[in-house]
Here is the input.
Amino acid sequence: MKNLLLFAYFYPPLGGPGVQRPVKLIKYLDRNNWKTDVITVKDIMFHSSDDQLASEDMTEKVIRTGSLDPMSFLGKIKKRSDRSKIYFDTPEKYKKIIRSLFPIDDKIGWLPYAIKAGRQQLKTKRYDAIMATIGPYTSGLAAYKLSRQYRIPLIIDYRDHWTMNPYLPFITPFHRKFSEHWEKRILEHSSVITTVSRTMKSDLLQKFGSQLSSKIKVMYNGWDEEDFSDVPVREKTKKIIIRYIGNFYGHQTPKYFIEALKNLKKKNKLPEDIQIEFIGNYHSEVKNIFDKSSIANCINITPQVNHKQAIHSLMICDGLLLFIATHKGKGVLTGKLFEYLRSGKEILAMIPPDGEAAKILKKNNYQFITAMENAKNMEEQFIDFYRTIKKSKNIEFKIPAEYNRQNQTRNFISFVEGRI
Here is the structure.
């Protein structure tokens, strides 16, 4: 039996892909004789919660601490409606300015609380490794400090890039240099580094040196096969239901997709029997794209559902939409990509055609791939996508078991135990 101390700022009852990764990892670690304690924060303002995902929590112990960061301050507002109004109605450009003001990241106010909680835990229990899932990058800094102090191997899990993150603004050269300094120190000290994509691993080696190669393991988000048990079968209806399940971050946007549909409508080419559904909690900029479009009548917006319901939603629709921005998006592999693969549904992938996500889709015989910003090409792709679904000529998509969470975790454990 081995013990792991994990720093995860985003953890149930919060929801979303950034939460699913540590929860699913811990679940399958537990089944392979690794027990995990988690240090996270108390109530914060976030775009989603997921009580169902919380029911899967297999931690031995969850330590929740205070914090002095903007999301924690918002979490202290008593009325949830007031929290949501501030969070979702504040324009993203202002949020970026606020985030850029802090050194490391805007969760730096969690650092003293996280370190204090870690020290208290390390006084009472022996751990074989300390791990941080990042972002926020403050998690990595806390884990690094304790790893050095207590001489315990460090594991850093990259869900997102740090100083190479295209969505992370640095307000001054000092802010960038300061973060690069700490990222380099943390990487050099770590025993194991995991990344969600091969491109991310390549980026790290190019920036911080090939000497890191032997300690970096690609651990895809994958899917959890158990999430797909007892899923209802799609019932035939008069409508062709096409869904996008998730939120929009950074440069991700449905703007060009909506533009393509509007152009098809002007040409009288937009099918009348389609129903397009977006399931998620969207900020004001995204809502305006939907509300002000001339095709609003064929678009439905549903608030974010828990993860199990999201799996049900993708299994009982006819086709799926995927969005990844072209700008620095070649290495982006969202968690939903693998769940989409597991569903076996047709996918209209608006993603970098030469990116890693596109390579995985092509490898598994998916053909509808176009750049997210190419509205003109999207028109043709959408019609072909629709016709393929309509004629029920979907090919039998092979389910690549190598990507499921269970196998990804087994490979991770094998790698870690060979290095600590």
Q: What stands out?
A: DSSP finds 16 helices and 13 strands in the chain. The domain at 2-222+404-417 is CATH 3.40.50.2000 (Rossmann fold). The chain has a mean pLDDT of 89. The radius of gyration is 22 Å.
